[in-house]
Specification:
The protein is of the alpha+beta class. The protein folds into 2 domains: 43 residues, no CATH class; 103 residues, Alpha-Beta Plaits, CATH 3.30.70.1350. It contains 6 helices and 7 strands; from the N terminus they run βαββααβαββαβα. Strands 4, 5, 6 and 7 form a 4-stranded mixed β-sheet that branches. 16% of the residues are buried.
Length: 181
């Protein structure tokens, strides 16, 4: 069995240094074989770009809100997203055609940091504080990993508890949409 390694063969045997080369070293002998690859370590590295591309990257609050909502719904014990206090403002935004993120999640992005507020409905039978802590952890981890932003704060509000057999309650706007079909 042969082992490919980067060594400075001359330094080991004679104490002198030469330019590092890739050489094939056998496990049974300590001395390098005469065959060596003529590829230096410096040329094996990735080429770096000397030009810097200028420009800004802006991530909309709604993008962070969607990622946070999906991360929240992944947590066991979360029945649904709750209704946030600004729901009346959200209904007005819908009527005017303004974009908005998922119900129960709001995010505030500033530079490369983000603060997220999440309102949840917990499932009956789960420890509410454990579920809320898991939501905080999962939202922070997912937003940080997917968007490359530093999460400075995740606030979780438990709005309700879903009882067994209880269906998701529809908002008046959703009920109107269903009635229209």
């Amino acid at each position: 069995m042969t082992d490919l390694s980067v060594e400075d063969a001359a330094e080991e045997t004679t104490g002198e240094t030469e330019s590092p080369e890739l050489s094939i070293v056998s496990e049974t002998t300590a001395a390098p074989r005469p065959f060596s690859l003529s590829m230096s370590v410096a040329s094996a590295q990735e080429p770096t770009s000397s030009a810097v591309v200028k420009g800004r990257i802006k991530v909309a609050d709604e993008v962070v809100e969607k990622v946070a909502a999906l991360a929240t719904l992944e947590v066991s014990g979360v029945a649904d997203l709750g209704e946030d206090p600004a729901e009346a403002i959200g209904a007005l935004r819908e009527r005017t055609g303004a974009r908005r993120g998922p119900q129960g999640v709001s995010a505030h992005v500033q530079d490369r940091t983000v603060a997220v507020d999440v309102t949840i409905v917990a499932e009956y039978g789960h420890a509410v504080m454990d579920v809320a802590n898991e939501v905080k952890t999962n939202v922070a981890r997912t937003v940080s990993r997917m968007l490359g932003m530093r999460v400075v704060e995740v606030n979780v509000t438990v709005d309700d508890v879903r009882l067994p057999g209880e269906n998701r309650q529809e908002s008046p706007a959703e009920a109107d949409e269903v009635a229209a079909f």
